[in-house]
Amino acid sequence: SPTVIVFGPEATSMAAMSRSDTLVLEGGPGFIVVQGKGRGFVRKLYSEGAWLVMPSDLDGCGFGSYLRDKVRRTKA
Hints:
The protein is α+β, with helices and mostly antiparallel strands and 76 residues long. 38% of the residues lie in helices and 29% in strands. A hairpin with a 2-residue loop joins β2 and β3 (31-36).
C-alpha cells in the first residue's frame, strides 16, 4: 500500500519519515499517516527507526481525527 501508518514515539517516527521518501498526510499522538513516493519506502522507514508500519487503505483524510478522538475517549 502506498499509504501507511507509522507508530512509535513522535521524535523517532518523524526522524525515520524525514529520511525516507514519504509525504505526511496526517498525524496524532503516537502515529503518523504517510504516503510513500517510491519502492522500498517501508523498509527504509524501519531501517531509520520506525517501530511499526502498517498498511492503510485510507488516504489520511479524516483518519487522524478518528484516532485522536479514540485516544481522547480512552483517557477521559
